[in-house]
C-alpha cells in the first residue's frame, strides 16, 4: 500500500473506534490541527471522586472540563473543574492550573465564584467551586435586548469584582459574556 492509503486506513479505523468508545478524546480539543488520539478517562454522570458524585456535565473551558457535582456528605451542589489534559509529564499545564487554584483561593468577593477546595485525582488536579444557578450573559443576550437598568447593574457588579481582583494583583485574562454568570436573583458571578 502507498503511504497515503495506509494513513487513510488508519484514520478510518480511528474514527470507527472512537464512535464505539466515547471515552476517547482528542488532545488539545476537537479542533486541534495536529491532534493526537489517545485514551483518557472522561468522567461520566454518576462517577464518584472522593465524596463527590457527578450530577451533570456542564461544559469545557480553556483549561478544563466543568461538571455539576454533589458532595455526598454535606449534599451541597458544587461545580468541579478538571484539567482537560493528563498532567503527568506536562509541567507547564500543571503549573498553570496550580496558579489558577492559588489565585482563585485568594479571592473572596460576592461577585466572584468561590473556590471551596482543590485536590489531586490520579494525574489531574480538581477544583471544587461554588455552583452558580443562572445563565451566562452570552446566553441571556441570545434572547434579545436586555433592559438598560439590568445591563448597568450587571456591568457595575462585574466591574466591582474586577476592581477587587485587580487590587489583589489578579488579572482575569478571559473576561467575556460566557464567563459572567447571572443568578436568578440578578447577582453577577465572574467565573
Major sheet size, sense and barrel closure: 6 strands, antiparallel
Record field, number of beta strands: 11
Strand order of the largest sheet: 3-4-5-6-8-7
- Number of helical stretches of at least 4 residues: 4
Give me some keywords for this one.
191 residues; alpha+beta; 31% helix; disordered N terminus
Can you describe this structure?
There is one protein chain. With 191 residues, this protein is of the alpha+beta class. Helix content is 31%, strand content 29%. The protein has 4 helices and 11 strands; from the N terminus they run H-E-E-E-E-E-E-H-E-E-E-H-H-E-E. It has helices at 3-20, 91-105, 137-142, 148-167, and strands spanning 24-26, 37-39, 48-49, 52-60, 64-71, 77-83, 115-121, 124-130, 134-136, 180-183, 188-190. The strands form 3 sheets. The chain has a 6-stranded antiparallel β-sheet, with helices on one face. Strands 9-10-11 form a 3-stranded antiparallel β-sheet. A hairpin with a 5-residue loop joins strand 5 (64-71) and strand 6. The longest helix has 20 residues, at 148-167. The termini are far apart. Residues 1-40 have low confidence and may be disordered.
